[in-house]
């Protein structure tokens, strides 16, 4: 028997590519909304693996689904189909506007598929001139070269040589900005209904309707990137349901697998028909293990109790953050929807979001940032009131620590 290898944070620097700078703690176990590190120290998880762990850690329904499927069938490739993929696709179609589903492994891959489909649709329906894709400043759509270029954050896309062409960026929540750029050459507009990485900024209802209207006027497809907003995160299965807008293509990932890697692109039959056999694919997309877990997650999340519970928990979070702010005056506003919330730092603490994140970890609560000025919260959709209260008590200590350090 080989001896157990000692694993430390220092090992990361010895063996991993340095594109991440992970925290010093190494979690080894999780249950619900609590996580324990190598030293047995407990953390309350308000980060949810960046809006992924929608049922917390090791939810019994997920463990059961994974274990059962692990004893049946792991992988086939898309030379054949499989039962979990078909069951999940049927449930997604039944629950949304969509008529067809394509499975991938991540949000970036789902977005890559959506963008390729839009270009293929435009080419076959309207000809080569119709190829422009419009997206929004501060948007985020993944890290493949196509999706990172469509994302409106040059810091992520610069420095890798010539970028894919035919992509324009306009201002979020500014319909005039979009109207000025759109034309008959536009094949698709890609948008997050609520920008996540860009600072937790909701799309205004009137603006989103305006985007839909412009797409209709110019015969362009509307792509909703719901990788972060989807699968119950905002209090409905998908955020588009809380607007007057129905997209032509929707992408989903993160919470879709509750922690198991899976992504999907949803669309109509007429649009889907343009991805004929051989035009796009994925070795692991539609993997039986991933789809079995995702189906179990969907069976829990897509229920009135959980979706209504998200709205209730949103209020618990807002009330607790307001109490902290009454005492320490660090936030200018709390924005977002459901359990995708951003506490924007006021002028006194601009640029210091990471200080709060670090102090939070030291006090035993895991949070996120969205840029330099916003604390982001994306916890489990079923997090308990007790965990919220205790996590907020720890966050308050972290806030007090940062305030004292900046006095």
From TrEMBL:
<dbReference type="GO" id="GO:0006526">
    <property type="term" value="P:L-arginine biosynthetic process"/>
</dbReference>
<feature type="binding site">
    <location>
        <position position="283"/>
    </location>
    <ligand>
        <name>pyridoxal 5'-phosphate</name>
    </ligand>
</feature>
<dbReference type="InterPro" id="IPR005814">
    <property type="entry name" value="Aminotrans_3"/>
</dbReference>
<dbReference type="GO" id="GO:0030170">
    <property type="term" value="F:pyridoxal phosphate binding"/>
</dbReference>
<dbReference type="GO" id="GO:0003992">
    <property type="term" value="F:N2-acetyl-L-ornithine:2-oxoglutarate 5-aminotransferase activity"/>
</dbReference>
<keyword id="KW-0055">Arginine biosynthesis</keyword>
<dbReference type="InterPro" id="IPR015424">
    <property type="entry name" value="PyrdxlP-dep_Trfase"/>
</dbReference>
<protein>
    <recommendedName>
        <fullName>Acetylornithine aminotransferase</fullName>
        <ecNumber>2.6.1.11</ecNumber>
    </recommendedName>
</protein>
<dbReference type="GO" id="GO:0042802">
    <property type="term" value="F:identical protein binding"/>
</dbReference>
<comment type="subunit">
    <text>Homodimer.</text>
</comment>
<dbReference type="InterPro" id="IPR015422">
    <property type="entry name" value="PyrdxlP-dep_Trfase_small"/>
</dbReference>
<feature type="modified residue" description="N6-(pyridoxal phosphate)lysine">
    <location>
        <position position="254"/>
    </location>
</feature>
<dbReference type="InterPro" id="IPR004636">
    <property type="entry name" value="AcOrn/SuccOrn_fam"/>
</dbReference>
<feature type="binding site">
    <location>
        <position position="140"/>
    </location>
    <ligand>
        <name>pyridoxal 5'-phosphate</name>
    </ligand>
</feature>
<dbReference type="InterPro" id="IPR049704">
    <property type="entry name" value="Aminotrans_3_PPA_site"/>
</dbReference>
<comment type="similarity">
    <text>Belongs to the class-III pyridoxal-phosphate-dependent aminotransferase family. ArgD subfamily.</text>
</comment>
<dbReference type="InterPro" id="IPR017652">
    <property type="entry name" value="Ac/SucOrn_transaminase_bac"/>
</dbReference>
<feature type="binding site">
    <location>
        <begin position="107"/>
        <end position="108"/>
    </location>
    <ligand>
        <name>pyridoxal 5'-phosphate</name>
    </ligand>
</feature>
<keyword id="KW-0808">Transferase</keyword>
<feature type="binding site">
    <location>
        <position position="143"/>
    </location>
    <ligand>
        <name>N(2)-acetyl-L-ornithine</name>
    </ligand>
</feature>
<keyword id="KW-0663">Pyridoxal phosphate</keyword>
<feature type="binding site">
    <location>
        <position position="282"/>
    </location>
    <ligand>
        <name>N(2)-acetyl-L-ornithine</name>
    </ligand>
</feature>
<dbReference type="InterPro" id="IPR015421">
    <property type="entry name" value="PyrdxlP-dep_Trfase_major"/>
</dbReference>
<feature type="binding site">
    <location>
        <begin position="225"/>
        <end position="228"/>
    </location>
    <ligand>
        <name>pyridoxal 5'-phosphate</name>
    </ligand>
</feature>
<dbReference type="GO" id="GO:0005737">
    <property type="term" value="C:cytoplasm"/>
</dbReference>
<dbReference type="Pfam" id="PF00202">
    <property type="entry name" value="Aminotran_3"/>
</dbReference>
<keyword id="KW-0963">Cytoplasm</keyword>
<dbReference type="InterPro" id="IPR050103">
    <property type="entry name" value="Class-III_PLP-dep_AT"/>
</dbReference>
<keyword id="KW-0032">Aminotransferase</keyword>
<comment type="pathway">
    <text>Amino-acid biosynthesis; L-arginine biosynthesis; N(2)-acetyl-L-ornithine from L-glutamate: step 4/4.</text>
</comment>
<keyword id="KW-0028">Amino-acid biosynthesis</keyword>
